[in-house]
Amino acid sequence: MSKPVSEPKPDWIRIKLTTGDNYQDIKNMMRSKTLHTVCEEARCPNIYECWANRTATFMILGEVCTRACRFCAVNTGLPTELDLEEPKRVAEAAEKMNLQHCVVTSVARDDLNDGGAQIFAETIKAIRGSLPLCSVEVLIPDFLGNEESLRTVMEAKPDILNHNIETVERLSDRVRAKAKYRRSLELLQRAKGMKPDIPTKSSIMLGVGEEWNEILQAMDDLRAVDCDILTIGQYLQPSPQHLRVEKYYTPEQFAELKKEGLKRGFSHVESGPLVRSSYHAHEQVKSAQSHKKGTPASV
């Protein structure tokens, strides 16, 4: 059973603090190249583990988001600039880290005509130019439904196209700002239509008031648009101003949801209390590739 929200975080919500040389190296590199990571900006619980393993999720298009989602710790407001040299610096950092898989996300930039799609495309190309063998995953906003913005990203041929629905349909308007549940599904469907061979991915966070059957319905909705990869994690309230945690799910419940996802045909399901969208992302590429070749996903 889950713990009532009035009690302290359960024992299984534990963050391993690892701040050795690799962690410090990556932190110093990000500062020296004036780069941002979603690891820091969104206060990801896995930052210590991932940075210790020399992996990071780059956050492009600045550090100020034009939306104010009630679950997200990223700064919100009106951005004042667009850094056209950012793709080059991301590629230089990725090369220095000698990454095998690179994840690139962004703040929402509704102030830009293309939502920042061109910078996404240029970042993919820059990384490929510096690290030809490195796979590139992009976690994109919805671009307010702009099909041409999505096409710009897809034409750059990322190895994985990620867009998060975040929560179940009933709660979407309360949890997310401006984003629409059905529009997110449409984006994933369009991405498949543009480049059928590029795996798509999405994420659901639990603990904001959803029901079990609604989680399963969200899975079905994602599979209906041929989404390949699913990540499921526990929502953790980043500040008193954000949504409260309504429920803590147990590791056993996350394991059961993984089974449900694999049963529905996802090529890979990453499900656990501290799982976030890019957690173990490099393993998901391999799963998606094996799935395309006909190798069954494993529980």
SSE order and pairing:
Layout: H1 21-32, E1 36-37, H2 38-41, H3 47-52, E2 57-60, H4 86-97, E3 101-106, H5 117-130, E4 135-139, H6 147-155, E5 160-162, H7 172-175, H8 181-194, E6 200-206, H9 212-224, E7 229-234, H10 251-263, E8 268-271, H11 281-292
Helix pairs in contact: 4-5, 5-6, 6-8
Explain this structure.
Mean pLDDT is 83; it is low at 38-42. This protein has a single domain (21-292), classed as Aldolase class I (TIM Barrel, Alpha-Beta Barrel). The longest helix has 14 residues, at 117-130. With 299 residues, it is α/β, with parallel strands linked by helices. The chain has eleven helices and eight strands. It starts with 20 loop residues before the first helix and ends in a 7-residue tail after the last helix. It has an eight-stranded mixed sheet with strand order 1-2-3-4-5-6-7-8, with helices on both faces. Helix 5 (117-130) links the parallel strand 3 and strand 4 (135-139).
Defining traits:
single chain, 299 residues, alpha/beta, TIM Barrel, eight-stranded mixed sheet, 11 helices, lipoate synthase activity, iron-sulfur, metal-binding
Order of strands across the main sheet: 1-2-3-4-5-6-7-8
Instruction: Write down the Rg.
Output: 18 Å
Give the helices and strands as they follow along the chain: HEHHEHEHEHEHHEHEHEH
Number of strands: 8
Shape: globular
End-to-end separation in angstroms reads: 22 Å
What is the correct CATH architecture? Alpha-Beta Barrel
- Tally the structural domains: 1
Q: What is the CATH homology-level superfamily?
A: Aldolase class I
Structural class: alpha/beta
Tell me the strand percentage band. 5-15%
CATH topology: TIM Barrel
**Largest sheet, described in full?**
8 strands, mixed
Q: Extract low-pLDDT stretches.
A: 38-42
CATH class: Alpha Beta
Approximately how much helix is present in the residues?
A: 25-40%
Number of helices: 11
Q: What is the mean predicted local confidence, pLDDT?
A: 83
